[in-house]
Amino acid sequence: MSTAATAARSPRSSGPGRITFARVLHSELIKTATVPSTVILLAVSFAVMVGLGALVAWGTVQLVNDPAAGPPEGFGTSAQSLAYDIPASGLPFGQLLIAALAVVLIGSEYTTGMIRTTMVAVPTRTPALLAKTLVITLIAFVLGIAAAFVTYLVAQPILSGSDLDFGLDAEGVLPSIINTGTVLALIAVMGVAIGALLRSTAGGVVTLVGALFVLPIILGLLSGLADWVEDAARFLPSNAATALVATQVQPDQFNQAEGGLILAGWAVVLLAAAVVVLKKRDV
């Protein structure tokens, strides 16, 4: 009887119908691509990032054309240096929208009960979470690079009137465009992980908004109380993301590689915690 039971369970792990990571990944890709809200949110993210970059380019030109409105004395950043950062200028809103999408992808499964079907199909659980994470990570990476590159193209005609246009070979520009995708990919990992940990779409979105936008403001207000507060703020995900896409390293700030390692550290720790919790808790 034991042999018969084992034989009945074996098709899940062997034979043509066995569960493989490639098949789990394919199923997660189908689930993600066939949800209309996903496509709408990605289109909105792209449009907002490019539109914001165009506005920043226009504002930079106004600074050059109106010296009275230019950077204050001692600001230490030229208009050309500001222009180099324009391709990645839509990143803050891109982070917010991609983080929300990543949380929704996992949080909605808990809300609707779909997660039980997913875990029955993939009883080891971890491949399902990793496949979902990989899908949204790749989408976010491509979206970030595409949005930054189109922003670069849109900004050039605006900047050319003030001789601020530049080529992709300008200092730090091309790495900044690529790292815009890297930041969104790592933020997406954090979003899926927090969604899996909290099992709540609303709770996950609020937590990420707090970590990315509210906490830096609070620590900035408290930075005068103690030196360690300012030091701690440098390790926040939002500040690490800013360092990763910067075209120039500012004094007393992390460089691009250090910023990338810090942000990747946040993503890996949260994802590892999500895997452990997913394996131990009931769905």
From TrEMBL:
Transmembrane domains' residue ranges: 39-61, 90-108, 129-154, 174-198, 205-226, 259-278
Top-level division of the source organism's lineage: Bacteria
Keywords carried by this UniProt record: Membrane, Transmembrane, Transmembrane helix
PANTHER family, per the entry: INTEGRAL MEMBRANE PROTEIN-RELATED, MEMBRANE PROTEIN
Identification of the protein by name: ABC transporter permease subunit
UniProt organism field: Arthrobacter gengyunqii
